Amino acid sequence: MTTTTNFAGATDARFRAVEDAFRENFDRFEEVGASLSVVVDGRTVVDIWGGHADGARTRPWERDTIATVWSTTKGIVAACAHRLAGEGKLDLDAPVVTYWPEFAQAGKEGIPVRYLLSHQAGLPALSEPMPMGSSFQWDVMTAAIARQEPWWEPGTKHGYHAFTYGWLVGEVIRRITGKTVGAYLRDEIAGPFVIDFQIGLPEADEPRTAEMVSGGPPPDPDIPIVKAITDPSSLTFKTLTNPPEIMLPATRNTREWRAAEIPAANGQGNGRAVARLYGALARGGELDGTRILTPEAIERATTVQCEGPDAVLMQNTRWGLGYFINSAESPLGPGERSFGHSGAGGSLGFADPDARIGFGYVMNMMRQTSVLEDPRWAPLIAAVYASL
User: To bridge 330 with a disulfide, which of 48, 87, 270, 372 should be the other Cys (CB 3.0-4.6 Å)?
Assistant: First the structure.
């Protein structure tokens, strides 16, 4: 076990191996700071954190430290959409234009809402070059998406809507509720269920926010997505570089980035928050005696919509409605029905409804590894299941 002393939290005696694996990750993978939480059948059995909230290692990671979780945000946004669907306010089979009339441009009149959640809408990128800073301007991005012609016939294939997912699903939520997705999350889920997760960070929370730092080995140049992201003609390049600031290291620790609502990428939370939500979804949507989602909504959300070659990620993906479904390419433990979402650099949240597990891992050192798998996850997940 590592001798690093900056660890804190609580672990059920049966799950001590999970804490050991968490500590060992700091030595094995040069972790900077992280938090890990595991909920089993509604009970928190692991809630630990350690390391530092800054690259210089001068600020300890505390109990309430939060960090950008990148695309792990997408699973939280999906829960917002499915809550509306469960209440009968959102019809996933209805055309998007039912809620967002301006979306009807460029032949998109018939695209159903479910294609937004399953990455089948053909709108992963914008062909229109966006000015620097556009990602911080909601109306600018949604107007550009409304003008965009699909890159393929919607429903005929799928490709990861890395950033557009958030504006697409978020605008539908806004049109239905009159609230931004960040406000809806706060009012309907995060606030009532005491889940420390935000999209659009208030300035008062800046002092407890971790600095995102780069780390790990350089990516393998032979990986197809690495080749694609360096090719300006590829859809992958267009998806990940427009608006131009969206993936720049200089952007991710700015006040402007954290304050904006970019619901595919800039949610701020910690392992406890992510595990608490997925822990509820793992047991039928109930948390502390109150329901976040109905079992029917969860079943609908986790029914496979598409699988196979992803037009953006350049590898196989398997999608429900807003969630990765467990697969060899995106392993979420041994549970066949496990579902969740990972984020760039290494954050992860998932639910296993058979084992009734909710898992949340949030860190600030972004390893440049496979999009769907990070070496830090495997020892943590293995230790969880070995402890059951």
Answer: 372
Taking alpha carbons only, the member of 114, 199, 98 closest to residue 154 is 114
Contact 260, 136 (CB under 8 A): yes
User: Residue 18, SS3?
Assistant: helix
N residues, the chain:
388
Q: Is this structure's pTM higher than 0.70?
A: yes
With a CB cutoff of 8 Å and minimum separation 6, the contacts of 62 are: 49, 53, 208
Catalytic residues: 71
Q: In degrees rounded to 5, what are phi and psi of residue 213?
A: -125, 150
How much is the CA Rg of the chain, to the nearest whole Å?
19
Span 77-122, pLDDT tens digits: 999 999 999 999 999 999 999 999 999 999 999 999 999 999 999 9
pLDDT digits (tens, 9 = 90+) for 280-303: 999 999 999 999 999 999 999 999
Structure tokens at 309: 């070659």
